[in-house]
Amino acid sequence: MRLARRLAIEAASARIGRMETKQRVFSGIQPSGASHLGTYLGALKNWVALQDDYDNYFCLVDLHALTTPQDPKVLRSNIRELAAIFLGVGLDPARSVIFRQSHVSEHAELAWLLNCIAKVGELSRMTQFKDKAQKGGAEAASVGLYDYPVLQAADILLYNAHRVPVGEDQRQHLELSRVLARRFNGTYGETFVVPEPMILETGARVMSLDDPAKKMSKSSPVPSSYIALLDAPDTVRKKIRRAKTDSGSEITASPDKPAITNLLDIYAAMTGKSVEELEADYQGKGYGDFKKDLGEVVVEGLSPIREQALELLGDPKELDDLLEIGAEKARAVAGATLRDAQAKMGLG
Ligand code: ATP
Ligand code: LTN
Q: Residue 144 in 3-state DSSP?
């Protein structure tokens, strides 16, 4: 069975090699904690939908995860869990290259080259760095956290990706990748594709369940603020039942009702219905009815993913093998781009 799967992947990889006409997509997620509904609606769901139309590279960015303190044992298990989630949502190793960043050393090597053209002023303006560094005091933040966006640019540019499907919070990082690609090309000659962000209209910014002013985040210390993709159905129902709501009782989206607006957005993203349709469906009904239905919608959407991921977690060897097959394919592309960049800078 395992062997059959591997052969199928190999055959598909030969097909991937012939797909030069397709544009390339690259994106990544950190194995730094529980992947949640925001990650799913802002990124993963979109990745799955892109698979047939693009030449896809999807990466577990484990080097990025090290920019904040990680317990090695927990990190190891988070990496496998995220790999299981990648496959559980429907990423298909026969159509997409799925791999770990640390298995392809070119990521760290290109990051160094790009470090030498990135500017301190640019990195100091990154809001994610400012927010995260603020939590423990900027002086104590790691140099890795500061340099995070340069490693992200290296990820994308190594594959000459045309499109990068991410949530809204990544817009600024992507802009830096574009700036670095243009600067490198302008200084050393045409080398990198300048990537375009791909940000969905619905689901691109899922907010926290306990504070609709903050994005749903896996680094939140409050587990009830996010719905983890592996949460049991009853936990999902309970978290939604307890989610913060606004004053008043109408189910309508508006800037002065950020909590119910967020829940309506989640409902819309999970079902494909528009927020207006949902407002009409729930006219005259209360928060209780709405939350009960939303709980079922989310449970129904996430259950197949959870079941599939839990099953895959029962075979860690298979997950590791799949990631290694992906890394081999990624190295071939990344190696060629790195050598080109090195040569252009005078290292070749
Ligand atoms: P942290 O919150 O700890 O910074 P994160 O969840 O933002 O981590 P990743 O897991 O690396 O970081 O994000 C993976 C992808 O999910 C990115 O494309 C990101 O834009 C998207 N994403 C993350 N959180 C949300 C959210 N709340 N709404 C929509 N998209 C999100
Ligand atoms: N910073 C991203 C994760 C990430 C990424 C990438 C996304 C690292 N490298 C390359 C797209 C392309 C985040 O979502 N937190």
A: helix
CATH 3.30.499.10 fits 223-307, yes or no: no
Our mutation pick for probing the ligand 1 site, out of 30, 132, 169, counting the most ligand atoms within 8 A of Cβ, is: 169
The verdict on the CB of residue 61 being under 6 Å from ligand 2 is: yes
Dihedral class, residue 248 (left if φ above 0, else alpha if ψ from -120 to 50, else beta)? left
Residue for token digits 């990198």?
Answer: 192
Fold of 2-204+316-344: Rossmann fold (3.40.50)
Distance between Cα 304 and ligand 1 center (Å):
21
CB-CB neighbours of 339 under 10 Å = 13
| Local confidence pLDDT in tens for the 348 residues of the chain | 464 466 566 666 665 555 558 999 999 999 998 999 999 999 999 999 999 999 999 999 999 999 999 999 999 999 999 999 999 999 999 999 999 999 999 999 999 999 999 999 999 999 999 988 888 777 888 999 999 999 999 999 999 999 999 999 999 999 999 999 999 999 999 999 999 999 988 778 999 999 999 999 988 889 999 999 999 999 999 999 999 999 888 999 999 999 999 999 999 999 999 999 999 999 999 999 999 999 999 999 999 999 999 999 999 999 999 999 999 999 999 999 999 999 999 997
Cα of 302 from ligand 1 centre, angstroms: 17
Looking at ligand 2, which atom is closest to the CA of residue 167? Answer: 14
Catalytic machinery residues: 132, 215, 218
What are the domain boundaries of the chain? 2-204+316-344, 223-307
Give the atom of ligand 2 at the shortest distance from the alpha carbon of 26.
Answer: 12
Alpha-carbon distances of 44 from 153, 289, 335, rounded to whole Å: 20, 29, 26
The DSSP string of 56-123 is EEEEE-HHHHTTS---HHHHHHHHHHHHHHHHHHT--TTTEEEEEGGG-THHHHHHHHHHTTS-HHHH
Please indicate whether residue 63, judged by its CB atom, sits closer than 6 Å to ligand 2.
no
Closest ligand relative to 205 C-alpha: 1
